[in-house]
Amino acid sequence: MKNLNRLILTTLLVFAIGNVNAQDENNPWQITIGVNAVDVFPVGEDAPQGDYFQEFYNVEDNWSILPSVSLITLQKYIDEGFSVGISASINRLDKWGQTEDGTPVSVNNLMYYAVDGNVKYSLSGLLNTKKLEPFVGVGGGYTWIEKGPYSPTSTSGDSGALIGAGTLNGTVGLAYWFSDNFGITAQSTYKHSFKDYLTKHFQHSVGVAFNFGGTDTDGDGIYDKHDLCPEVPGLEEFNGCPDSDGDGIEDSKDTCPELAGLAEFNGCPDTDGDGVSDNNDTCPNEAGLKSLAGCPDADADGLANAQDECPNEAGPVANNGCPWKDGDSDGVLDKDDNCPTEAGTVANNGCPEVVFPSEEEQNELINYSRTINFALGKSSFKEDAYPTLKAITAILKEYPKASFVVEGHTDSTGTNNNFNQLLSERRAEKVVDYLVENGIAADRLNSIGFGENKPIESNMTEAGRTANRRVEVKLAE
To answer: Does the reported pTM lie above 0.70?
Structure first.
């Protein structure tokens, strides 16, 4: 046993200092060394054994543990979380369950040997975990137990002889990885014997696990463990990464990995020699200016030829490199001209001066518009209103830049103020509609109704009420 322990210790040291990685396609081998415990009690049999999982964690009364390294497992990674393995274990059984009244049953250190194979599936990928690795397994093996008092009497052989049988095994376990290559594992395996003379039982184990067996996927002589580019053949000086264009700059740091270039330009060339690397040069085949991303500026107006609408005539950037124009020749540049297609004055921002009717003309317009007659209580015009409307239309056309407002008013006849208000609004709108239909732009006109609220004469007389029933066309303020 001392020699076995020394061998195990030597193996641990070898793998602890070796170049290993987490078990995967690059480090597919895993070795686990630890201790195991055998429990024959919770297996669904009569006393001195018990029901399935009865007192499953009763270590003190039910678990037989050999206080030494007693299990070794070698596992090989296959693909997609699956691995296959083989393990060997040894133990001494000194516990065989309990009597019906719960008294622990002892046996005389029966030797236990087992060789098992299994297929393990790691759940790390499904659960997206790294350090914590749950796993399950299924397999089979062969177990030998020294014949004892609870072996079937039909079994041949004297006391002390080993009896063995094949088992079907199911495993659940958990590993915790302190690093990519070193971790601890704990697992429980149920072993179902194919023969009655070998008891069913659980075998629990804990151990330390090491992964090894690095590969060189890209065949460049650098193991994947140390290869920063394990899928692409590379150079040792670049830790396994390639330099495709041979310019002495590895591809991962080379902005132009397919074109040989200069270190000052991060591996990119400067084809036109203008001091701007091709990857930053918008015009790589034409010498230009750094300030314009390597493109030329023929008229030196600060705009590259490709973006300059007048490349041979200097002009402001705001006008796409062209000089400002004065399309209507009124002395106001188009950029400042509110009326660029109509000659105007500088004082009026390039637009023609707006002519407004004089104050006297405005008063005449108001008085004239008051003569528009409507049917009683309606917004329809009387026949004699049309000559007045026609004349007002002609006056408004004399001032094409001026805007006007049409006000509607009523007398106080009646008791429904709402009716008078609506009537005044409709009469004002009626006048606006006529003016628009006869050539006055709608955006020059507005209408508003005041109802009976702004009389110009007393509503106590017929003459006063007649004067108050009116519309007024006024210059908009």
So the answer is: no
